[in-house]
Design goal:
The chain has about 200 residues and is mostly helical. The chain has 9 helices and no strands.
Length: about 200
């Protein structure tokens, strides 16, 4: 079962990074965290993939006071998503015209939903940003929805101030990514053999 979990995890993380790159190329707005990543990348003169990985590592350090425990998937998330994003951007040309950017945006959001379901369904640990959300919710007693909204509005605001791209894609992602992951997750969740009685 572990080889299948690892394979699904890696496919999910690589697809996640590639879908983020496609969304960036569509240039119609990014998800809140990537608005932040893009803004930081612009200011720091680094590739966005490197910033994704560095922010993931920084967020992972915030787990220490929250007493969160990383899994294999958590560490792989920090290393692979930004790397996959940079590699995809290195071969993916600019997307021009009217229809192609819209098609690329729609495809990227759906692919991101599938990718999120794949790596969550592998059950090998949450990503750093998800772990921050669940850790804060546990420590504060606030709802996951409230904590997630607060975090994403904060990073979106800072990212926009730093020059990140906010647009229709940002809204599309915000309203559809949760339902998309919910649709795909039951299809790819690998049952935990320990839970079988």
């Amino acid at each position: 079962m572990m080889p299948r979990r690892l394979l699904q995890l890696f496919i999910g993380l690589l697809l996640y990074g590639a879908s983020m790159a496609l969304m960036l190329r569509a240039a119609l707005g990014l998800d809140p965290w990537d608005v932040f990543h893009q803004g930081l990348a612009t200011q720091a003169d680094l590739s966005i993939g490197k910033v994704v990985n560095l922010v993931g590592l920084a967020v992972l350090l915030l787990w220490i006071p929250l007493k969160q425990r990383p899994g294999i998937g958590t560490v792989a998330n920090v290393i692979l998503i930004g790397t996959a994003m940079d590699l995809t951007l290195s071969v993916l040309p600019a997307i021009e015209g009217l229809a192609l950017p819209v098609a690329a945006l729609l495809f990227s959001v759906v692919a991101n939903g599938i990718a999120g379901a794949l790596y969550i369904g592998a059950g090998l640990g949450p990503g750093p940003r998800d772990g921050l959300m669940t850790g804060l919710a546990r420590r504060t007693g606030w709802s996951l929805r409230l904590v997630r909204t607060g975090i994403e509005l904060t990073v979106l605001g800072f990212g926009w101030l730093l020059g990140g791209t906010v647009g229709v894609g940002t809204l599309l992602y915000a309203f559809t990514i949760g339902p998309l992951v919910q649709i795909f997750l039951p299809m790819v969740t690998i049952p935990d053999p320990k839970s079988n009685t």
